[in-house]
Write a structure and sequence with these properties.
There is one protein chain. The protein is an alpha+beta fold and about 100 residues long. The chain has one domain: ACT domain (Alpha-Beta Plaits), CATH 3.30.70. Helix content is about 20%, strand content about 40%. It has a 4-stranded antiparallel β-sheet with strand order 4-5-3-6, with helices on one face. Strands 1-2 form a two-stranded antiparallel ribbon. The longest helix is centred in the C-terminal third of the chain and has 12 residues. The protein is elongated, with a radius of gyration of 16 Å.
């Protein structure tokens, strides 16, 4: 069992054994995207490609004509690099108009 050690975003810390351990972080992504039929699966795919399962996924259509939706996607206990790669994957999805990402150590 590896020890869980907290550190700032992307930091490496030394465990009791003297081996560097990647700190685990939580990441929250707030996505505004087209409300198309395949959008949710494409958003989840950005996580699945890295073998990560979101700890929360909530989607709702925006007010107005319903053409846009907002998605709250959260990851917990992932390394900082994985959180960064998920962010890059979400930004590349056609139909995503806005992405706000917050990562906590």
């Amino acid at each position: 069992m590896s020890p869980h050690v907290s550190a700032p975003h992307g930091a490496h810390v030394a465990a009791a054994s003297g081996v560097a351990v990647e700190a685990l972080v939580s990441a929250r992504y707030l996505v505004t995207a087209d409300a198309s039929s395949g959008m949710l699966s494409r958003l989840v795919e950005a996580c699945a490609k890295l073998d990560v399962v979101p700890s929360r996924l909530h989607a709702s259509r925006e007010d107005g004509d319903g053409a846009m939706m907002t998605v709250d996607l959260r990851l917990t206990k992932v390394d900082a690099r994985t959180a960064e790669l998920v962010e890059y994957g979400l930004r590349r999805i056609v139909g995503v108009s806005q992405l706000i990402c917050a990562v906590d150590a």
